[in-house]
Amino acid sequence: LYHVRGAQFSYKSFEFCKQYPKKNSAYQILANKEEILFIVKFSVRNASGKNLSVNLMNRRISYPLSVDGFEYKPTISVLENGGLNFLSTKIKAGKSEEAVLVYSVPRKVTAAKELSVRIEDVKNKSTVKLN
Length: 131
Known about the structure:
The protein is an all-beta fold and 131 residues long.
């Protein structure tokens, strides 16, 4: 789906939190009073033998989160690498980097039974079940 030669994208985990990243950072995102942040973590690995530039900013890839039949869109993240939805980074040969999607969701989502992220562009679609 990403069509970046040499890059391998894989789902790692998710977490709920009030702020992301948890440590103090110039790029910290905070949940408002009634909501919680839902962070979906992916790994972007450079499987090529040379340094790799990855830029998904103009690809029009969407990432709707499905929670027990309700859908949420990721927030605009001011993370250092742009987060997965606005990823722009350079990865050294053989190395990996974390790229996340940040959703601001109602607190009740923490008790959800079914969670998944649909990754889609104009021509392709893939669903990642979160567990």
